[in-house]
Amino acid sequence: MDIRQLRYFLTIAEEGQISRAAKKLHMAQPPLSQQLRLMEEEIGTVLLERKRNGKTMELTEAGKILYKKAQNILNLFEESILEVKEAGEGIRGSLSIGIGSSCVSYLPKRIQYFHENYPMISFKLWGGDPFELSKQLENRNIELAIVRLPLEIEDLSMIPLETESFVLVVPKDWENFHSKEAIHMKEIEDVPLLLVHRMKGEGLYERVVEECERFEFQPNILCECPDMNILLSLVEAGIGASILPKSSISGFRNIEIRVLDILDSSLQSEIALVWLKQRYLSKAARKFIELF
């Protein structure tokens, strides 16, 4: 068994069909099927079997074990090749970074500095919520990510960047809040709330609900959405209010909203630069980390 066959096996497993895998690998279907048979003969067990519908394939128990091991082997192989190449070259290539929508302010000056000092490096930026960026890290699509914690991923290295309080964001024309610069949690009890909710995993939504329960009331949640831009547009339209980390609204200066401090809340949000402990980081990634 060799690296090439492992790539074939992973692609078949991910695509679920020989035909789709062959198309993705830019090869004919019969030789791909033959390579899978050769692997199974060498190992002495079936790795993939057809589902009842006969159209797609799924991993057997043995196949699941090999799939996980093959991913690790290929990651190590590709990172080893990169490390060897970089030993004889300067800093060049592409740096892939994930960025949460509320963390963008950490990038512009650092990218500008990096471009001036390392002009052979280009950037690939991936947006998304913390769950999506965790998956991109695990799949090796990005080397670094700037996100709000927590992340449901183990074996991470990180540099904490900021811990900040939450604020209440209300429509500018809400009369009940016109004369106020700050409020107490209990004043939020009957306010219709529009909350950020991750696609998967726990995050800001769960923290806000827990804080309301700590003050012995159930939040009046009108809407939940993973996109902060949409929520703030709804706040501006007068639909409801939102509870958000203070810096997350710094990029929305032109919208008609008011921002109030919450005096007695213990809610805090942590932002960090993170990367996988067990992977080789490119020279570019290591230099970028130094900027923090």
From TrEMBL:
PROSITE patterns: HTH_LYSR (PS50931). Keywords: DNA-binding, Transcription, Transcription regulation. CDD domains: PBP2_LTTR_substrate. It comes from the Bacteria. InterPro entries: HTH-type_LysR_regulators, LysR_HTH_N, LysR_subst-bd, WH-like_DNA-bd_sf, WH_DNA-bd_sf. Belongs to the LysR transcriptional regulatory family. This is LysR family transcriptional regulator. It comes from Bacillus yunxiaonensis.
